[in-house]
Write a structure and sequence with these properties.
Distance between the termini: 41 Å
Structural class: mainly alpha
Order of helices and strands: HHHHHHHH
Shape: globular
Strand content: under 5%
Radius of gyration: 19 Å
Largest sheet: none
């Protein structure tokens, strides 16, 4: 039953996850942490496990949505590689099929004002989904003290905005600061 649940969940995520991996995170979090799927006794992951998966998915090469699908498929099926393959395929399949179906149409009608309106309407949705993913990850497990976390984020923003310091160095400084504070 878990394989069917994985297939359905990740087909939905792949179909409605406009905007890439970060936009998919709120959908993935909902399916993996909040929903008890048909025939199962508990969600696939805890909130802490989901946060860990997001961190690991960011560090490994590839899109975060696909990396997290691979790992969640593995965990949800009790360590089966087939769960990883199924979840990864299911999250990629809707995008693949949609691109095949509409790419020719969009190329022919890209100047059509109605198509432009549709694409313009999707942009705020993508921003909202990415903001939702950021809000989901802002919890007590990730940020035990919001004061220091906000200070680190504001400091990093100010360094990026007003200095010529390379962003890699800012990330390193923020990481060291977080390690020392927490």
């Amino acid at each position: 039953m878990v394989y069917l649940n994985l297939l359905i969940a990740y087909l939905k995520i792949g179909l409605f996850g406009f905007g890439g991996g970060y936009a998919m995170l709120s959908l993935i979090q909902h399916e993996a942490v909040e929903v008890v799927h048909m025939g199962e006794s508990a969600p696939w992951l805890t909130s802490k496990e989901f946060t860990d998966i997001v961190a690991i998915s960011q560090m490994t090469p590839g899109p975060i949505g696909i990396n997290s699908a691979t790992y969640i498929g593995y965990v949800a099926t009790g360590g089966s590689i087939w769960g990883s393959v199924l979840a990864t395929t299911a999250v990629c399949l809707p995008s693949f099929v949609l691109v095949l179906l509409i790419s020719g149409f969009l190329l022919r009608h890209k100047e059509n004002r109605y198509i432009q309106y549709i694409l313009s309407g999707l942009r705020p949705v993508v921003v909202g989904l990415i903001a939702s993913a950021a809000l989901i990850l802002m919890n007590r497990e990730n940020f035990p003290d919001y004061t220091f976390s906000i200070a680190i984020a504001v400091g990093a923003f100010l360094l990026v905005r007003y200095t010529r310091m390379h962003p890699i160095w800012i990330i390193v400084i923020a990481g060291i600061t977080g390690f020392l504070v927490y």
